[in-house]
Amino acid sequence: MDVIFSCTKCMQELVVEASGSGSEIECPSCKTSLIVPEVDAANVHTSAPIESSAAAKEDVHYSVPQSNKPVEPLIKSALPTLEFAKDGEKTLRIKTIRRTDCVEVDRDRFDERVSEFLQAVGEKNIVSINAVNYSHEDMKSKAMITDYGVLIVFKG
User: Fold this and answer.
1) What SS3 state is found at 115?
2) Sheet harboring 92-98: ordered strands across?
3) Domain residue spans in the chain?
4) Do the Cβ atoms of 98 and 147 come closer than 8 Å?
5) How many CB atoms lie within 10 A of CB 4?
6) pTM beyond 0.90, yes or no
7) What is the spatial distance between Cα 3 and Cα 39, in angstroms, rounded to a whole number?
8) Which end of the chain lies in a sparser environment, N or C, as judged by fewer CB atoms within 10 Å?
9) Can you spell out the DSSP letters for 58-108?
10) CATH architecture observed for domain 2-52
């Protein structure tokens, strides 16, 4: 059973267990000292907190859409893998290789991956190789990390 009352200064609604009636507390919003009122019919709450929440009152009915015709996929398939044209018309393409994508179990394979890609393209098809610096947020530490990579422009 809980006692529900409002702060006299900031009107913040407070909920305290009935056993705390008569004790002095500090309002978490404005830090005013308050005395928890005695339990009476006007300020007592006996139901579980979830029963009074908006989620408990919401009545939702879901239906599965049905159709007789083919449905357009909502998730597009991945782009085809990069293929190099051996003969004929070649167009300019771009490949970006980030160092963070090349680290495997504390082993940095950035140089190997760049070398493998450059060998697959061939020296005569490389237009330019540019170093790039970028920043991203580390998911574990939430810190901004600056890293590097290469942007390769090639014919393929």
Assistant:
1) helix
2) 92-98, 144-155, 126-137
3) 2-52, 92-155
4) yes
5) 13
6) no
7) 6
8) N
9) ----------SSPPPPSSPPPPPPP----SS---EEEEEEEGGGGEETTEE
10) Single Sheet (2.20)
